[in-house]
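Bug #2210: token dump truncated for Methylamine utilisation protein MauE domain-containing protein?
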Amino acid sequence: MIDALRETQVWLLAAVLLLGAAAKAVDRTAQGPAVLLPVRLRQPFTRLHAALEAVLAAGLMVLSGAAGEVVRAATAALFAVALVALLRLRRRDPELGCGCFGGLSTEPVGWRSLTRCALFLGAAAATVGLPGSGWAALADATPRHGALLAVEAAVVAALSPEIREAWRRLRSPVPCALREVSRGRMLRRLRASGEWRERRHLLVSTEPADTWRHACWWLARFPGRDGERSVDVVFAVEVSGRRPEVRALVADAAVGAVDAGGTG
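Reproduced locally. Full output below:
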């Protein structure tokens, strides 16, 4: 019974770490313990944290022996540090979310997030000393393993406000005017459009001089030349939709608009 319980912790932790890594990788808000750092370090820290969680998740499942022990000990250390960081975050700003699952972790740090982190810390500590990998245990899994995992997953779900937040977002998607977008993604959409290809020859630089949001549009201004004239080439990229519309306008830098176009 005890051995089965310890083995199920490996699967639970691997799943939690992978979900956390995926959520942090797509999040641009840098919530949670990242806010304890200077602003310039928050995004790099979040990306590094996501990468570390993904590596540990993979290690828990595939490594055994001494290497597996290192990964299991590192996982326990990660959750110990996370628990301390959450306590500090709660004291510093009680209204901030834990950031455990990226932008879904919006509920202020409270007893549920602290209890969940402590539970994961205990689960990670329980895996130290296991002889095999997660995959090896999975290959020999019994109904008892499944029952134990189901019970623990239910406990974790009860301690996870992110599930309710995810369901709320699925039922009521964020309006496009309020939707967060990354600069890199919008530039990729722009550079794949016909409007970009049509006006590319006018641009002095392929990097925008300025970018801004207006309702459901992301706009970028590029310096350009049209013959002897200095112009501004402004592109507008629709934020939502699988095939977002792209519009373009070429304006004389001193006088006004001289050409406009758009794609459906």
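Output looks complete on our side. The longest strand covers residues 217-226. Marking as cannot-reproduce; reopen if the truncation happens again.
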